[in-house]
């Protein structure tokens, strides 16, 4: 198979989009480091200040489903510039917050912009790359996501300790404004459908449904809220299948690659986010490290992903999504097996190697799925498919974190006095969840 080269224009576009994508990801990790200082500054409890993060994540989750239709109506270039502008405006307001309540409100505004940036990144690059270059170009999306967990806590800690927590928001402005200036010249305009209206009934059903489900899975709300969310989601599904232009087009599930990619993304995020929750807790609660030290010890995972992404993208374009994804899932299973052996004295060298390998496996398991999702899909359907897949993926990450947390709590009770054993047991469950993704991976298209 002849490989279509990546020309200068697509590389330039990828670089510009990555600058914009890095901004909200950095912000999310920096804010986590600053929460205790923000709570002290406003004189509020930890429970209250947690809403600074929860409100932002909730706003993102609600915004994602609308992105596809907004792109169809106004175009990806217009929405990209709008998303960055809204995010920057929210960041500036966050820095001027006079109370915890005002900060939470401004974080909601910030999330409205941030929630559109990730799906827009995928839409813009998927359209520009075309089927022959999509693997290599889509691998660029993963670079900001892996750099942020390393740079965010370090930069956030430095900023908070030296010039104050307000600057973790102000630092977004030069990056965001630079991204806007670059995008103004680089991101191409695309065809729009002026007749594409926003499905207000669908929005009224799916937004509270996602909010209730995310809050329930995060432990902020109770099980009745989860039931309410499921009922609203069911009502939305009925509505979407009867509407010509629904907010999320469920009829896209008739396209097998979209269905398989959605299931795979849900399951992989379920297991990955579960493991990403466990490892820092293990390092802090069992090994006694600070949050910053734990972040540094987890850096090999991000390094492994960044190193593997270029090769994974090239292989996906050359040999197809299925073999690369199967190898990727297999690698993550092997690495997770190493995590099941953790003790109070586990070698950090062994853990670092396992994390490095695990990061490589994550890259090999995720990039092919993103590419396969668009296989044989009309370019006009890419925005809708991206919103649909990203929405389900968000729920998968929340569900994985919630389920793994519940398992860990159960095991901590069973292994009272031996928390390392509780973490090892819980990693066995993560291993099972990871292995389950092998089945849908076999259903990916052989060639993309």
TrEMBL record:
This is DHA2 family efflux MFS transporter permease subunit. The chain crosses the membrane at residues 9-26, 38-58, 79-98, 104-125, 165-184, 196-217, 223-241, 262-282, 324-342, 348-374, 386-407, 427-446. It comes from the Bacteria. GO terms for cellular component: plasma membrane. Residues 13-448 form the Major facilitator superfamily (MFS) profile domain. Belongs to the major facilitator superfamily. EmrB family. It is found in: Cell membrane. GO terms for molecular function: transmembrane transporter activity. The keyword Metal-binding does not apply.
